[in-house]
């Protein structure tokens, strides 16, 4: 009897260990976990600018208002979600850019999820050939003095037009084929749908459906 109890306990321990291994990781080539999709783990500091909730971490770079934004090569280089997710991460500092953050890449992918975040960005999850990555569209009120501010606002308006209006704090799943342009390397903060290397199209300066 004791031997049977020990065997059963061992089977339970092994099964638990196996299930921990096979759960897909959020990110490159993985499904979006339900808890993460609901935004339960995502956390990022915010501040108020002219009544709008805006971000803090690397915000000048994220909004093209950093000193080197004028040096960015805005000629769009065609790429894929999988390729951008395979690049060696090379983020800069709070208001400085890594080498790849001075270029712009454009991808065609399916928009599988979008919501408004605490920093007022529209957080897009792009999926293509089993790989995922994030694109971000900042609110115009958070981009004062930025390069290509009109392009950012136009991209956000195009998204709203495609989904029938402003996006709220809950996930929607448009499933649209889209073309998106930008580039940035973020740091982990529980964000949903990230690439393995945390490459993002951020800020989005070009967006088109189809």
Written account of the structure:
It is a single chain. The chain has 210 residues and is of the alpha+beta class. The protein is built from five helices and ten strands, in the order ααββαβαβββαββββ. It has a single domain (26-209), classed as Nucleic acid-binding proteins (OB fold (Dihydrolipoamide Acetyltransferase, E2P)). The chain has helices spanning 2-22, 34-37, 59-62, 81-86, 149-163; strands at residues 46-49, 52-55, 73-78, 103-116, 122-128, 131-137, 176-182, 184-185, 199-201, 206-209. Strand 1 (46-49) and strand 2 (52-55) form a beta hairpin. The protein starts with a helix and ends with a strand.
Condensed summary:
By secondary structure, the protein is an alpha+beta fold. The chain has helices at 2-22, 34-37, 59-62, 81-86, 149-163, and strands spanning 46-49, 52-55, 73-78, 103-116, 122-128, 131-137, 176-182, 184-185, 199-201, 206-209. The strands form 2 sheets. Strands 3, 4, 5, 6, 7, 8, 9 and 10 form an 8-stranded mixed sheet that branches. Strands 1-2 form a two-stranded antiparallel ribbon.
């Amino acid at each position: 009897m004791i031997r049977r109890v020990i065997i059963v306990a061992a089977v339970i321990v092994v099964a638990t260990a196996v299930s921990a291994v096979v759960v897909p990781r959020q990110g490159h080539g993985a499904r979006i976990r339900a808890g993460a999709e609901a935004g339960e783990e995502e956390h990022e500091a915010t501040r108020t600018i002219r009544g709008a909730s805006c971000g803090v971490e690397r915000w000048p770079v994220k909004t093209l208002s950093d000193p080197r934004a004028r040096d960015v090569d805005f000629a769009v280089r065609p790429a894929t979600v999988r390729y951008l997710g395979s690049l060696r991460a090379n983020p800069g500092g709070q208001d400085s850019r890594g080498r790849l953050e001075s270029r712009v890449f454009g991808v065609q992918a399916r928009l599988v999820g979008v919501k408004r975040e605490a920093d007022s960005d529209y957080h897009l999850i792009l999926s293509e050939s089993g790989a995922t990555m994030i694109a971000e569209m900042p609110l115009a009120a958070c981009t004062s003095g930025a390069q290509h501010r009109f392009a950012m606002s136009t991209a956000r308006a195009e998204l709203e037009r495609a989904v029938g209006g402003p996006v709220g704090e809950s996930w929607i799943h448009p499933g649209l084929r889209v073309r998106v342009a930008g580039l940035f390397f973020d740091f982990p903060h529980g964000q949903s749908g990230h690439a393995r290397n945390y490459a993002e199209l951020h800020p989005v300066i070009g967006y088109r459906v189809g």
